[in-house]
């Protein structure tokens, strides 16, 4: 007895009951398709979060004052919020070997005015390296340089949103003067448009000026809101975080037993935080899809059970003409596996189509991984064997004499 | 004399029905030699079905010896019995038992699917050959619902022949057929028997038994009569005597 003959027999039985087989398959098809679509949506949103956060600069490392966050709430008091100083920036710049660029960051908000137009916005004080850390570019004009920093120069680079609101008639803003909280700044460059980030913030609603200027002329403060740095590469980011932590622990004279009064984090950590939310959602979606796959499996079991009952006489005949019990078992098992695997293939196809429709018409971010296809396919095969086993076993245990008499 | 194909001695078969024990066969002896055409007759409850099931290796005796083609069947496993059924026995049933919506040739191929190492082409060739022997070569691709009762039984006979069994076992093979068709089927059995095929035929119709060479009568689990047919019917002659159908 060779296995191809059993396949032939099982295939024949499937063909003889096309409608019934199709309906049985439908359960599996819908189950698999929804698993694939749900995984694609989950994976897509995870990737889109990752991409968005990475677009802020994949290698970026952020150093903030205070011991860090607990569930989104800063757990530090007012003084520890002022723990970052320019000396920390200098220490990192001098001592760190794993970072490419570093920039202090101070910011304030206020009204920016040009002629008859005004606009509420934020102003950031940074070093000239800030743009390369954020992987931003100037569209026209230039970025300020170190001599501007040293001379507290009142020059600024503005984002697209500022340009549109202060110069709505399309004149070239380069060389024009704007006032922020009554301090005049000369515009020397316009940033390339970046659009919104993951959290809906307009990344073009920004003015960047030398940190010295902002610290002294606008905020009148000697501490920094944060320090940003870029690691040499994405892979080095974690090591750079550790290096910076060590440098700052030393400059802040922090005993290893004490909590740090600052917090260093890489983009990866931020990604992880946001991914965990989307992962939870994915698990939920896939669990629901999994249930529909299970129901599909029970559908197969039901049909195989009915089929065994209905074909009792046929089973009796097959046994009478020499089919061994295990051949009958194999025949029904192959039949159910064929149904579930074919259903699985069609389900994968439907899942891909559904995913395509979701991404095209709803515009949701989706990502199909080979993992999700392989997973649902394996689950299908197991479903076929698992739910086909009991009815097949029952068929193979038939007594040919009783089976032949069955009407 | 040739080595017997079937040899049973002191065969008993008991069924337990709750507290009662039903003794369907109570010490039966029977020998069938190659080339014989034996009818097993008996009323219902006489044990003829039980005997046929044991002869067909579908059931095992409670005690006694059964040798089929020199093989003692008593201690064989289920799988070994299945193999014997496949290679040594050809079954023919009252209700034909053809697979529905499956062509005649595929029905005939069925036993080959369960054992032979032959290619699909060889299988087909053998099935076609068997169909030719029963005069169904022109309807190889008809499905059972397109065939008359007699034609379906012919396909079933072809199926029983395809593995070249040592004996054909027929269970009321003409029970569902009208007289003329029954006689035509008996004509086929006679032809097959003339070509050397051994046949065991269970029936309760005396006229059908007249076509065979020997009759064994069972009653309450015992063989009460075992005689050779003296005035044997020849199917071709009997068919001529039947009134012409319009």
From TrEMBL, chain A:
**Record flagged with keyword Nucleus:** no
Q: What is its main location?
A: membrane
Transmembrane feature ranges: 21-42, 280-306, 327-358, 364-390
Q: Name one GO molecular function term.
A: transmembrane transporter activity
GO cellular component terms, alphabetically, are: plasma membrane
Q: Which UniProt keywords apply?
A: Cell membrane, Membrane, Transmembrane, Transmembrane helix
Q: Where in the cell is it found?
A: Cell membrane
Q: Which InterPro entries match?
A: ABC3_permease_C, MacB_PCD, Macrolide_Exporter_MacB
Q: Where is the ABC3 transporter permease C-terminal domain?
A: 287-399
Topology versus the membrane, per the UniProt entry?
Answer: Multi-pass membrane protein
Q: Which residues form the MacB-like periplasmic core domain?
A: 21-246
The family classification in the record reads: Belongs to the ABC-4 integral membrane protein family.
Q: What is this protein called?
A: Putative ABC transport system permease protein
UniProtKB/TrEMBL annotation, chain B:
Q: Which UniProt keywords apply?
A: ATP-binding, Nucleotide-binding, Transport
State the CDD domains in the record: ABC_MJ0796_LolCDE_FtsE
Q: Its GO CC terms?
A: membrane protein complex; plasma membrane
Positions of the ABC transporter domain: 6-245
- Family according to the record: Belongs to the ABC transporter superfamily. Macrolide exporter (TC 3.A.1.122) family.
| Spans through the membrane | none
Kindly indicate whether the keyword NAD belongs to this entry: no
Q: Which Pfam families match?
A: ABC_tran (PF00005)
MF GO annotations:
ATP binding; ATP hydrolysis activity; transmembrane transporter activity
Indicate what this protein is called per its UniProt record.
Putative ABC transport system ATP-binding protein
